[in-house]
C-alpha cells in the first residue's frame, strides 16, 4: 500500500501563475482533506472532500482557491493567480470513512514557493 | 466550535530527561484527541489517540499522553527523551460533528 501520494513534492511558480497540487489517497480511502502549513505556523484546515463532493470548505480562501476530487483520479487543489503569501506546505490526508477513530493518513506534502 | 492550543512554541530538553509537550482543547461533546509528529520535509505521522477508556494512552516510539477532562488537557510525555525525538509535534482534536483541527505545533529539541 503506497500510502497517500502527493505530487509534486516541490513546486515553484511565478506570481500570477496557476498551481495545481495533486493528492492520491490510500487505496480504499474515499475521503480527502487538505491542510496548509504556513512557515512557522501550524496546520490549517482547508477543505474536506468525498468522491465528487465537497463536504466542508470552511477553511478555503474565498478567491483563487478551489478543490475537486473526481470519480476517477486524484484530488486536485488549484490555486489561481498565485501570490507570495500562498507559499506554504500543503498536506493532503485521507481516510476510509467520514470520521475515523484512528485519525488520518497524511501525505508528505507539496511545498509551494511563489517567486 | 472545537479548538486546540499548544501554549509552547518550543520545548528544549536534555537527552535522557523526561519531556512534556502541552496541549489543551475546547470541544463540545466528547473529544477525540490525537498527537502527530512531523520530521523535516516529511508528512505528519500518527503517534497516538484518545477516544475513550483509560486516561493514559500509550503510542509509538515510547510516547504516551494523559487525558485530563477537568483540565481539558492532553499533554504528550516521554520518560526519557532521545535526540531523534527532535521534531515538530501537533495536537489535534475533533468531536463527532466536525473535522480535525490542529494546534500550531511545538518544536521539540533534544540536546545530547
Keywords:
heterodimer; A: mainly beta; seven-stranded mixed beta sheet; four-stranded antiparallel beta sheet; B: 112 residues; mainly beta; 12 strands; 52% strand
Could you describe the 3D structure shown?
The complex is a heterodimer of chains A (115) and B (112). Chain A is an all-beta fold. Chain A contains no helices and 11 strands. Chain A has strands at residues 5-7, 10-13, 19-24, 31-37, 43-50, 53-56, 65-68, 75-79, 88-95, 105-106, 110-114. In chain A, strands 2, 4, 5, 6, 9, 10 and 11 form a 7-stranded mixed beta sheet that branches. In chain A, strands 1-3-8-7 form a 4-stranded antiparallel beta sheet, with no helix packed on it. In chain A, a hairpin with a 6-residue loop joins strand 7 (65-68) and strand 8 (75-79). The radius of gyration of chain A is 13 Å and the shape is globular. The relative contact order of chain A is 0.33. Chain B has 112 residues and is mainly beta. Chain B is built from no helices and 12 strands. Chain B has strands at residues 3-5, 10-14, 19-21, 24-26, 32-38, 44-50, 56-58, 64-68, 73-78, 87-94, 101-102, 106-111. In chain B, strands 2, 5, 6, 10, 11 and 12 form a 6-stranded mixed beta sheet that branches. Chain B is globular, with a radius of gyration of 13 Å. The chains are: A mainly beta (115), B mainly beta (112). The A-B interface holds A 4, 6, 33, 35, 41-45, 48, 56, 91, 93, 99, 101-109, 111 and B 6, 32, 34, 36, 41-46, 49, 51, 90, 92, 94, 96, 99-105.
Amino acid at each position: 500500500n503506497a500510502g497517500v501520494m502527493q505530487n509534486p513534492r516541490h513546486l515553484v511558480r511565478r506570481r500570477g501563475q496557476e498551481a495545481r497540487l495533486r493528492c492520491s489517497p490510500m487505496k480504499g480511502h474515499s475521503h480527502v482533506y487538505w491542510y496548509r502549513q504556513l512557515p512557522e505556523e501550524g496546520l490549517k484546515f482547508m477543505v474536506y472532500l468525498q468522491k465528487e463532493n465537497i463536504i466542508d470548505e470552511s477553511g478555503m480562501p474565498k478567491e483563487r482557491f478551489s478543490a475537486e476530487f473526481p470519480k476517477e483520479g486524484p484530488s486536485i487543489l488549484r490555486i489561481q493567480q498565485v501570490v507570495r503569501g500562498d507559499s506554504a506546505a500543503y498536506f493532503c490526508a485521507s481516510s476510509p470513512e467520514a470520521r475515523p477513530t484512528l485519525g488520518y493518513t497524511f501525505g508528505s506534502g507539496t511545498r509551494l514557493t511563489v517567486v | 466550535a472545537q479548538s486546540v492550543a499548544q501554549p509552547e512554541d518550543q520545548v528544549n530538553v536534555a537527552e535522557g530527561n523526561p519531556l512534556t509537550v502541552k496541549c489543551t482543547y475546547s470541544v463540545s461533546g466528547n473529544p477525540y484527541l490525537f498527537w502527530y509528529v512531523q520530521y523535516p520535509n516529511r508528512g505528519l505521522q500518527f503517534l497516538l489517540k484518545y477516544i475513550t477508556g483509560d486516561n493514559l494512552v500509550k503510542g509509538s516510539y515510547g510516547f504516551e499522553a494523559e487525558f485530563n477532562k477537568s483540565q481539558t488537557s492532553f499533554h504528550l510525555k516521554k520518560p526519557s527523551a532521545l535526540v531523534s525525538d527532535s521534531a515538530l509535534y501537533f495536537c489535534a482534536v475533533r468531536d463527532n460533528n466536525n473535522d480535525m483541527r490542529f494546534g500550531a505545533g511545538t518544536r521539540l529539541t533534544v540536546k545530547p
